Each structure stands twice: as structure tokens, then as C-alpha cells.
Amino acid sequence: MKMAGPESLSDVELLAIILRTGREGKNVNELAQEIMDRFDSSLRSLCNASLEEIAALDGVGLAKAASIKAAFELGKRLYAELSKPRTLLNSPSAIFEFCHEMRFYEKEIARVLLLDSKLSLITYSDVTVGTNNQTLLHPRDVFRLAVRANANALILVHNHPSGDPSPSRDDERVTLSIAEAGKILGIKLIDHVIVGRENYYSFRAAGKISED
Description:
Blueprint: H1 11-19, H2 28-38, H3 43-48, H4 51-55, H5 61-83, H6 92-98, E1 109-115, E2 121-129, H7 139-148, E3 153-159, H8 169-185, E4 188-195, E5 200-202
Parallel strand pairs: 3-4
Antiparallel strand pairs: 1-2, 1-3, 4-5
GO molecular function: metal ion binding; metallopeptidase activity
Pfam families: RadC (PF04002), UPF0758_N (PF20582)
Family: Belongs to the UPF0758 family.
């Protein structure tokens, strides 16, 4: 699995990894095959079986049955997460609306919005907490999150507790450094939006982030 990945394994082999051990007279792969045979080699049938039904199988027991049920539950939750419509952040106004609560923060917060190739939100994270008039943001912190989330692009957002969203020289410097780092890493900076009390400033709308 280490070389080819889990997708290269059969259902029986994956089940054997979940089981971890076999029973007396059968190794773990043989036990996994026996379980799959019991449920007609159907993952759906195994998934729909009760905890007690699986635990009652020879050599399985409650602990192994719980591991099997937990694996299926994680799969269900992943499917539910992937099936949810994602938030589309394709304009400064949409970004401002999504982060509207930042208008009332008393300290500067830097938020990174991580996007897929269609500019839909994957996840977001508040990466730094500053003082009442500045925040410290390093490209390393931003792109560590982006790489971990397998993001295609990102948006920076931070607030100005003063209520005035006009960018400072530090804001411009940080924007440029992250945009340049993104070009190297292949993770595009779509925009940097500064949230004020009643309005916002978009670096892209101001022409300070290139379209390419």
C-alpha cells in the first residue's frame, strides 16, 4: 500500500487492515475473506449489518466489529461532506459577506480561505491574531495550510478594527510576498480583502493583484 496507495488494494485487503489480526487457525487476510464471503462479497451488506451481527462472527468480536462500523461511518460522513454545495467566493462582495463578522473584531485577525479550482471554499482558518492595529502574517503559515488542504487557490482576508479598510504599506508588502510565493508553488492568490466596519478594500478590484 505504501508504494501504490490504498486504491490498489482489494476489499478483502482493506478489511484486513481494519481487522489488524486474525484468529486461531486463520490469518487476518483469511478472516477478512471469511467475513466478505458471509456478506456475499458486498460492502453494502456488510455496512448495513448491525454491530452485534458482525461481532457474533467467529474470530471477530466487539472490538473488531466496532472498527468495521467506524470505518463505514467515516465513509458516510466523507460522502456527506463532499455532497454539500460549496460556498462560491468569486467576487470581493461575496468574500466580504462570508467574513462579515470580522467587522466587529477588536483585534486584527488574518484569515485564509482555501479554494478548489472552481473557486469554491474547501475550508478556512484564522492564522494570526494581532493587536488592535496590526497583525503579523508570514507566507509560510499561509501555504502550509494550502498544501495540507490540497487547495488550488487562496484568498486572504483581514480586518481593520479602526473601521477604515484602506491598506497600509505592510498590507501591500504582505500581499505582494504571498502572491509571489503562490506563483512559485502553483497556488494562486485570488484576492486580499480588508474588512472595515461598513465596507471593504479588495486588492484585486484595485488592480494590485494581477489576473494571470
